[in-house]
Amino acid sequence: xxxxxxxxxxxxxxxxxFGISMRVDAGxxxxxxxxxxxxxxxxxxxxxxxxxPRAGRMTMEGTDLIATPAHKIIETGIAHVPEGRRLFPRLxxxxxxxxxxxIPAARVMYSERLDYVYTLFPRLKERRKQLAGTMSGGEQxxxxxxxxxxxxxxxxxxxxxxxxxxxxxxxxxxxLVKRIRSEGYTxxxxxxxxxQVLKVVDRAYLLEVGRMKTSGxxxxxxxxxxxxxxxxxx
Amino acid sequence: MVDLVLGLFSRLDCSPDIxxxxxxxxxxxxxxxxxxxxxxxxxxxxxxxxxxICYAEVVMVGMYGINFAYKGGAPFLLAAVFGILxxxxxxxxxxxxxxxxxxxxxxxxxxxVTGGVLFLMQAAATMAFGVxxxxxxxxxxSANVAEMSxxxxxxxxxxxALGGMLALWQFLKRTYVGTAIRAISQDxxxxxxxxxxxxxxxxxxSAIGGGLAGLAATLMVLxxxxxxxxxxxxxxxxxxxxxxxxLGNMVGGFIAAFIISQFIAVxxxxxxxxxGYAVAFxxxxxxxxxxxxxxxxxxx
Lengths: 234, 300
Hints:
The structure holds two protein chains of two kinds. Helices cover 35% and strands 26% of the residues of chain A.
């Protein structure tokens, strides 16, 4: 579904990613793990077009993403839940969801998808008239995920969904991830919370200072001594 | 000096009589037009984050456009539509030619280029139309209630301005593009993730902002003469209202328009006409000392 090869990217004189190659197949849940500053968020920004890579190739179901303008990437079926959720704080929950359905192909499906996300997350229906910025962190994460589902994506990018949330909420957020997986979405998730995320994905890549260090099935990585020591504090 | 001060106060007449009531109502009627003008400027600032210093000059272009079409034989409504289209186009051109190249530069550059356009437009209007005052020559007369007199042009301006603002509010509330216009000032960077092309949204907003200036021009040609410097009469007032309401805050600008127009109308009635403006600006300065972010600070 999604394929990257030899991606270099950075900001000004600083290079954040070196020759990244990876793939996500339809129906999979894949994680990119790594410590703070490893380049995980940069990788997500490159995939969704917010940052243009300096070198490399990137395709989504055969469509060249590098030649696609940033605002057209969502039309290829990639929807991105950004780091820190980034809801529109002074718009209502429902207006945030409407923004998720901005592209023409999604507008015609608006009412069906709104019913769908309200069934998936009844809490959002209760809060639909509330300003998004006044909700709790967990509810905001729910709203941010629902907003991406409004575009009818094939692949959902989740950037640090557990960031800044209380420990009890973090497990709820990983439940959300499991739920959108079971709804049939392909998921690419970037997380610092390595032990939790490896429980919900099939495969994972380990990113270290801008380079892909290793990759493999989640269970295998979770059992690796190196990863247990460096990222899971065991 | 003493005579001057005494002379000033001898004119002070704020007794709550019928003329005072007339002033308050006239202030209210003026507020509709000022609120409409402020709305256009606030809309553009809220979305694009640039102040069109030359906003009142876009209104001036609209007034000349309407006068041109009306004198050319078009019925007034058609001339008004023509004026609105001209200013909408002027808005798009202004954005495309002047704003877009300086979008990523410091605000002072943006102020200076739109300020440059202000003088350019004034000079161009002087060369094209001359310095003399022009008038579409439509007299709507006035309504006389008790001993008070209200011009129909002002009443019409108030109602149409209110209608225009209501229509814009519905557009912002109910459409996808309108929702994006409300969203973009809250998080500019993630707009591409929603599939929004910010550059296109800026052009649409510039067209709407320009069109609102054209609507205001339609209402103004019924009340005022047209001359190249008319922007200087209204421009500072519009900025003051926008800043008082909190720049970019459309609701704040609406309320500020009603406050400022009361100062102008009641101040003019109690003192001299010129003092009305002076009192309004004095109030503005004091208000900004106390609340630098505007009365309703921050963006709505």
